[in-house]
Each structure stands twice: as C-alpha cells, then as structure tokens.
Amino acid sequence: MTTAAPLFDASACIHRINSASSLLVWVLDPTNSSELLDRLRAHSGYPDFKVVWCGEGWRELVGACHDELAATFPDYRFYAIKEKWGVLAFQARPRAGEAAAEEADRLNEITEKYRAASEVVCEWCGRCGSLRMDARVERTLCDACANDMTTMRFPKQTPIV
Fold this sequence. Notes:
By secondary structure, this protein is an alpha+beta fold. It has helices spanning 34-41, 59-72, 101-118, 143-148; strands at 14-16, 24-26, 77-84, 87-93, 130-132, 139-141.
C-alpha cells in the first residue's frame, strides 16, 4: 500500500539564513505559490528574485497588495516583501527612480492597509490570528500555531490558503 504525498510540505517553507546559522525564517512555498512568485518577478527591484520572506498564511495578502499596487502603479518596484516585527512589510516604490510625494503617499496607503490586515491573519496557516509579542520572535499567529511554536520549530497546522 502506498501513501499519497502530503499536500503541504512544511520544509519547503523554511529557509536557513546560511549554512552556519541555526536561524530559520519562513518563505512562501515555491510550489504552492509559483504563480504569485511569477507575477511578482516582473516588479522586483532585483533580477535574482526568488522568494518572499513570509509564511504561506499571508500569501493572499501579498497577492492582493501586489494586484492593487500594479493596478495603481503599473511600473512599481518592490525591494522586499517580508515579515518584519510580526507584520507584513511590503517595501516598494511607485517606479524605479524618482516619484512624486503624492505617489509615494498613495503607495504607502496601500501597503499600510495590508500591513494592518496582517495583524489578524496567522502568518503560518492563514487562520484568524493576533500579533504575539510574548515569544522570542514577534509573530502573528493563531492560537493553535502559537501553541505549536512553544515546543516545535514550526507549527503543524496546514495552511488553509
């Protein structure tokens, strides 16, 4: 009897900073998120763009933020999409080079909307969560994932997105 491969491979969402480091960070799973990563690639400020530095639970937020930015600023460039201080940080500019103050303000309004939304979405699984500042690292997690993180390197919950 053969067993089917799991639909979600948590190891694909973990990235070791370097070979000497024990620090692990979460990234969007390249298998589950390949279509989104391909859409983002055209707007990356870096030609070797490969990953988004946040968990699968925020995939829909990243996609929605990208779609709104691309609709408002067709030539926008991002320089980082990541978790920072427990929330989604989408670091972008309206275009390469100079931008008017009004454009920068509008871009910041858009990215701030998704940063605020990330405060209530579990970064790992996408369920309702809250910003947890009591752990050794600030994260937005649901109760189940936060509980798992007390004894594991990453939650055992399967992302719902």
